[in-house]
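To illustrate the input format used throughout this study, we show a single complete record. The first block contains the structure-token representation of the backbone; no residue identities are included at this stage. The design step must infer an amino acid for every position from geometry alone.
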């Protein structure tokens, strides 16, 4: 008899977690701590321009041209504060800040969803993942928000909360695999990772992806042969759970 296994993945940004304050607000506050006196309105305008320009010139955080994501973000930070030349210590400070729960909050519905999915009895097994157009800071953020990430290299030199808000089996990041949503290959990579976690070959897979972006999450999942669910992390946890498990 074939086992029915549920594979459910979530987008990260603005689905599982969201900024505590607007990004320009956080940039401005930290910059001032490093002696860079800027107006938040200028930071907001320059950040949007820098992010758009770098994304078009070097997509996926510069992966295709051999850039490290830290280099890519450092370029964004420098352009954000141009024409001021920020101190060399500012970019690492911002990168470090935005890898922690100091910068983000977990959506309140997420612990209920993760725990409920893990304990559901409708499927023989449930595998939970994250599929994100992002870099390696996502697992760090999740761990700092109290979510265990089982299948990602361990973090050194920092405290990791004990999964009080749930558990995720794997994280698939666009920077790691070289493709961004809505490219179906990122979903193929996530499915391949899930299959590595399941020893039984005689499986009926049910694949569901949940995210807040209509094109990159809902439509992309549907085109990849998954079931897409559009959700921004706010409210309706029971309804979303039922929709995932149907």
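Output of the design step:
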């Amino acid at each position: 008899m074939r086992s029915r296994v549920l594979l459910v993945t979530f987008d990260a940004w603005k689905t599982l977690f969201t900024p505590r304050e607007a990004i320009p607000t956080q940039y401005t506050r930290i910059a001032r701590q490093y002696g860079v006196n800027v107006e938040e309105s200028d930071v907001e305008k320059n950040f949007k321009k820098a992010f758009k320009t770098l994304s078009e010139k070097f997509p996926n955080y510069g992966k295709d041209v051999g850039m490290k994501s830290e280099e890519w973000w450092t370029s964004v930070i420098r352009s954000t504060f141009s024409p001021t030349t920020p101190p060399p210590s500012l970019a690492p400070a911002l990168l470090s800040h935005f890898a922690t729960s100091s910068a983000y909050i977990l959506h309140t519905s997420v612990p209920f969803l993760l725990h409920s999915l893990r304990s559901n009895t409708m499927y023989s097994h449930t595998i939970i993942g994250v599929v994100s157009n992002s870099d390696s800071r996502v697992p760090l953020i999740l761990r700092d928000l109290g979510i265990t990430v089982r299948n990602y290299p361990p973090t050194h030199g920092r405290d990791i909360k004990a999964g009080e808000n749930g558990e995720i089996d794997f994280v698939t990041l666009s920077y790691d695999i070289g493709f961004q949503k809505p490219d179906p290959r990122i979903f193929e990579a996530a499915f391949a990772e899930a299959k590595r976690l399941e020893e039984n070959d005689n499986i009926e897979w049910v694949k569901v992806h949940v995210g807040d972006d209509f094109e990159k999450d809902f439509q992309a999942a549907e085109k990849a042969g998954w079931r897409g669910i559009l959700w921004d992390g706010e409210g309706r946890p029971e309804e979303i759970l039922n929709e995932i498990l149907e």
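Structural context for interpreting the output: The chain has a mean pLDDT of 94. The chain has eleven helices and nine strands.
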